[in-house]
Amino acid sequence: MPSKLITAPSEEPVSLADAKVHLRVDISDDDALIGAMISAARQEAEAACRRALVTQQWKLMLDRFPAPNMNVSSATWYGPQWGNSPGPLTTLAPEGTTGYEIILPQPPLISVDSVKYIDTDGNQQTMASTDYKVDAVTEPARLVPAYGKTWPATRNEINAVEVTFTCGYGTASAVPEAIKSWMKLRIGAMYENRESDVALLRGSVGEMPFADKLLAPFRALRF
Fold first, then answer.
1. Could you tell me the pTM of the whole model?
2. Structure confidence by residue, pLDDT tens digits, 129-152
3. What does the chain look like in DSSP terms, one character per residue?
4. Contact call for residues 12 and 43 (beta carbons, < 8 A)
5. Could you report the per-residue pLDDT of 41-52, keeping only the tens digit for each?
6. For the chain, what are the domain ranges?
């Protein structure tokens, strides 16, 4: 399920001023360089945690809406009908899923902005928000048909379904301090070592084992 960044965050979790305080830099000569390092550290943290930090908008693309028989090998298992009454089949997959879920990457989810699809006639349609339900408590978030609804039929072509959503913790101040602390350590390492190969002129370089553990509680385990 490919996803594409639509609207980038308008600010970084760590400000230029905070980064310079951490680096003990009080001149403006390297402001552009430090700013680039802040963005690089944020992107690295987002990739490591598989989540968004400051508010941003993404689009998830699917070739079709999910269905249980697409996700399991057994021809006799179809999962519950999510409100299609009567629904004779109520068995869940071993991990508790039904096969109808659309998993939205880049948690935490703020909102689902639109669900669009190409119908069997080749026209793009926008689903009413009452036709689907969002589970923003689970991370990553889940999108399923509303009670009594089913996913509509789509034309058999690539990227027939588009889910546009907004995600992130909100403003920079809402990003967990542990993530921002990791970013500052990463920025410090990049600022101190401008090349990928370090000449060991003053002894060996030792790693700080605790640094990456700052991100451990925030890694999305399912993506």
1. 0.82
2. 999 999 999 999 999 999 999 999
3. --EEEEE--SS-SS-HHHHHHHHT--SSTTHHHHHHHHHHHHHHHHHHHTS--B-EEEEEEESS---HHHH-S-TT-----TT-SS----PPPTTS--S-PEEE-SSSEEEEEEEEEE-TTS-EEE--GGGEEEE-SSSSEEEEEPTT--PPP--SSTT-EEEEEEESSBSGGGS-HHHHHHHHHHHHHHHH--SSS---SSSPPPP-THHHHTTGGG--S--
4. no
5. 999 999 999 999
6. 3-54+171-218, 56-167
Contacts of 166 (CB under 8 A, 6+ apart): 55, 56, 57, 58, 109, 110, 111, 113
Amino acid (1-letter code) at residue 155? R
Neighbours of 198 (CB within 10 A): 10
Q: How deeply is 86 buried, as exposed, middle or buried, from its count of CB atoms within 10 A (0-12, 13-18, 19+)?
A: exposed
CATH of domain 3-54+171-218: 1.10.3230.30
